[in-house]
Write the structure tokens for this entry.
Amino acid sequence: MNRLHFIRDKFAEFYEENASKIEAPSSISRREFGFFVFKENMVIRHKGFINVDALRIFIKRIVPSHAYYSAAYYETPEETMEKKGWLGADLYFDIDADHIPTECGKIHDTWLCRNCGFQGRGVAPDECPACGGKKFEEQKWPCEVCLESAKYEAMKLLDFLIEDFGFSIHEIIVSFSGHRGYHIQVENEDIRMLDSVARKEIVDYMTGVGLEPVYHGLRGKTYGASVISGPNLDETGWRGRIARGTHEFLLSATREDLEDLNLKRKVIEEILSKRDEILRSWEKRGPWSLIRGVGVKTWERIIKKAVESQSVRIDTVVTTDIHRLIRLPNTLHGKTGWLKVNFPAGEIEEFDPLSSAIAFKKGEVTIYVKEAPEFRIGEETFGPYENEKVELPMAAALFLLCKGAAEVVD
Amino acid sequence: MPLTRTDIAKYPFLRDAAEEVRREDLDIQSLESPELGSIIKRAIERIEEALKNNPPQVSYRKLEEDIEIPSFPVAVIIAAASGSNYIKRRYALAEAIRSYNLLREEKREKFLEVAKAFNWRIRLCDDTIGDRRFDFAVFFTDYLRNIKLFHESSFKLVNRPLLKGEVFLTKREAARLLLEEIRRRIEERLNADVRSKLPEKLLNQIEDLKRRYAGHIKETPFEDFTGEMVTEAFPPCIEHLLSDAKEGRHISHLGRFTLTSFLLNIGMKPSEVVDIFRSSSDFNERLTRYQVEHIAGARGSGTRYIPPSCETLRTHGLCPGLSELCRGVKHPLAGYRRRIRTFKKES
């Protein structure tokens, strides 16, 4: 049986039984909806629904491979973009493992040069090492390390939203995207009318773009070692983050890390030999005036590292786009067969996407797998597979089929 | 601390808006009556001060409340009726700067009262963060709404203390923000169409004013690029995007938008822009043509788009880093314009 037909049939069965679990976004009649359908990857946009029943019936009928709704509110959502009448938008953040340099090195991903067919693992290079070609086909997989890294970024983002921006945990909706990341949405009257310039400032705050340490307490002469003071560990906002990030960096930095900062050899020796002293210094005024030869300019380079580790890696375009379509919760992701699921922000640490997002829990199917890395669904681990026929539980099989890594065996 | 008559003379825009409209209607009817002569005279002076002072600033006349208060709405009508965007912008700014200077002399409590009249969520504070003392805590959305035109890095949100939704500010900084709020509010009021309702005599006075200050009025039309395109003068961000596009590398949606709108704005034809994307791995002629023409303003809303500012490119990782060429440049088109001039001088 054709792969896409099989997936569509399974998605149809799922929605027949579970469409009732799709909840109405707030102010549903003000939202625009969009869908991808399996046939020729066609897009249906500018849809509006007066209530959730109409939405559920529509989804059952068309069986989308992806379903989206707008973070924005409109006067008339079904009109063309210019005539919709923008009424505001929720604040939205997208965290995707694609944007995070993870420890797994994306070794599970593969790429293929379109020019010469050369293949490799990890993130696709700028140029094909064989022929110098620049166009690649990529196959990406969500691994546990990728998902954990994305979760860690989401947790940092929550800290920013709650501690710095003062949002209550109840107005923040956290969800697993159904693939390699997390979505965080703030529904709150205060931010609804913010334009994209204002949202850009919020993005820069989260990503540390444009941050200058001098505004966060780093004081001293520009050159030489006469730094007087800097922020401390227990402070709020970026001041505290700079201190904690610097602390972390100085305690774990290897000789190579310090060399990467272009520090003088003497300074590197100072830092490496004074680790204990640096640790103790935080009880008082911090290490800012402790290390000989380290002045404001050098501290700025070290703080840059701290900012990198403390800031959040988000897809900046999603947050500043005030017309963005976002995936509809409790619908299936066409690239995995998993669900986008919401969960309370307070439960993020224990949240396991590979259990919570599983949609298909019944039946088995035999498939022929071309190539797939090891992966987990619920409590069970599968693979790796290479050119083999296997009988798998429906969720695992559908995952490989959706990924385009397998075909159904009749 | 209630607002006194002196306060209204200092900050005349604080008057209840509905009341203002009623008054303005009245004023328009009776603008020819001789008792109003001194009010109209002062109203015209307010605008003259805006045009001739640099930086633009309206003066404050203590103890002349009976004229200071009503001359403001009349000046608003006159500026609106001038039909000149330059006069409108300049006048709004001059009134805002007047308030800014007065506000900085006020007690913090009075300052708070004025800010609250604009529905700001603001409170007094006496917090010291690090070695800086702050006077006010302002809700971050009120802050963000008013820093849009600021370029100083000290006003970037990421460089401010922000705690539980509140941005901490000194009185001077808060006054800068309020200046911006006042400027915008006055500018909004200047868009009203009042010309048809005005008496002949006043219209003549307005024309006279425009004639007398013709040398000061600088309407800046959107400057179109003419002549040959100078690829050597492209800013680094555009150069990067262009070479990526030609080599068929993947470019983000915003990157494509930036490149396309830049090239269209400096005079490239839509069909030539489409050709640049031809080597892209997912090139679709029909779709690309549609998108390029949309950005050119030939489709959809008819808006011709300009590329994002340097700030925005930085946020989205499209700025390859500040190079020497970009010093002081805030927009890729401005950078290009400046370098063209250098090239022309050299050749």
